Amino acid sequence: VRVFVTGSTGHLGSAVVPDLLSVGHQVVGLTRTESGATALAALGAEPLLATLDDLDTLRAAARAADGVVHLAFRHDLLRTGGYARAVADDLTVVRALGAELAGKVFVGTSGTGAAATPGVPVTEDDPKPDAAPRGEAENTVLRLAATGVRSAVVRLPPVVHSTLDRHGFVPTLIATARATGVSGYLGEGANRWPACHTLDAARVYRLALEQAPAGSRLAVVGDEGIAFRRIAEAIGQGLALPVEPVAGERADQHFGFLGGLVPADLPASGDRTRQLLGWRPEHPGLLADLAAGHYFR
Ligand SMILES: NC(=O)c1ccc[n+]([C@@H]2O[C@H](COP(=O)([O-])OP(=O)(O)OC[C@H]3O[C@@H](n4cnc5c(N)ncnc54)[C@H](OP(=O)(O)O)[C@@H]3O)[C@@H](O)[C@H]2O)c1
Questions:
Q1: How far apart are CA 229 and CA 257, in angstroms?
Q2: pTM summary value
Q3: Do 124 and 273 contact (CB within 8 A), yes or no?
Q4: CA distances from 238 to 79, 146, 205, 226, 290 (A)
Q5: What is the DSSP string of 52-118?
């Protein structure tokens, strides 16, 4: 089918686009840059040069496609405190695309997020409140099902890892450790972060496009929850740096914009997604991927 992919040149997009093409789908990929367009064309995709602000262009691309995979997100705003703006822009784009897709497919992106019950892994059955991070966009995607769109939302864990990961949270933590000379954690570091491999996530996007029932919440979970201290230890080992607790009052100073997230306990399950799509992770887990060394070269 003909698929319009936003964020087609990013970390996830650079795995999703080849996966879609590999089974014969046609891809139109959104990018703002000539270099992005060149890379997309080299893969065999059709580039569309536009920005997320060009809503008329996005609407026309959605109308001309059989389905949309929406990955673009204004990460450039995150590091400068512009998260609310990025979220608001995302909601605008989701609404614009969704309005064009009756009788077609829309696969959106969200995060696994916080547990509904503290300590208990969040599942696909747990709805996200509108007020949760990216909750309103997730719920907007799901509600499109009532307008005849076969819509699904893919919840990604905070860590998506592989050799394609250049500026996600793991490279950010590694850069922090290099800059401070310490691979830090907060408290006991017993809080858990879930993770998945980029190539496993890409497969879930394709399967969602091909077969997810309307209104599906999907979660790409390889590791359900790794104690943050284990992640800090793997980074310390990779960089030959000491692994040490950071005082809570220094969290933001040490970890920058990740200061609030580092101590969060975020276990997540993706069992329903595995059953629904007949999918299982095939690629290494986070600690094995860190031990492979590519993050530190
Ligand atoms: N990576 C992770 O670990 C992770 C974890 C959880 C959730 N997610 C979510 O997964 C999705 C994909 O993330 P990613 O890591 O692949 O992103 P990324 O590597 O930061 O790439 C961002 C993509 O969005 C496009 N983009 C950004 N601003 C744009 C704008 N103003 N107009 C048009 N396109 C724009 C970029 O296209 P051009 O630069 O080519 O224009 C690029 O393709 C996002 O929703 C992200 O929040 C990612």
A1: 19
A2: 0.97
A3: yes
A4: 25, 49, 31, 17, 7
A5: TT-HHHHHHHHHTSSEEEE----GGGGGGT-HHHHHHHHHHHHHHHHTT-TTSEEEEEEE--S-SST
Cβ–ligand 1 contact at 33 (below 6 Å):
yes
How does pLDDT run across 76-114, given as a tens digit for each residue?
888 788 999 999 999 999 999 999 999 999 999 999 999
Can you say whether residue 184 is alpha, beta or left, with left for phi > 0 and alpha for psi between -120 and 50 degrees? beta
CB 151 within 8 A of CB 273: no
- Give the closest residue to 200 by CA, choosing from 164, 234, 170: 164
Q: And the tokens for 50?
A: 């536009």
Instruction: Please report which residue ranges of the chain form alpha helices under DSSP H.
Output: 13-22, 34-43, 55-63, 83-98, 135-143, 169-180, 198-211, 228-239, 251-255, 271-277, 286-291
CA distances from 253 to 168, 193, 248, 258, 269 (A): 19, 21, 10, 10, 32
For residue 67, which of 32, 98, 22 has the smallest C-alpha distance? 98
Choice between 116 and 258, residue whose per-residue pLDDT is larger: 258
CA of 200 to the centre of ligand 1 (A): 17
Token pair in block for residue 139: 């719920």
CB of residue 234 inside a 6 A radius of ligand 1: no
User: What is the Cα–Cα distance from 123 to 133, expressed in whole angstroms?
Assistant: 16
Give the number of residues written for the chain.
297
Which of 34, 71, 92, 199 has most ligand 1 atoms within 8 Å of its beta carbon, as the pocket-test mutant? 71
Give the containing element (helix H, strand E) for 119. Answer: none
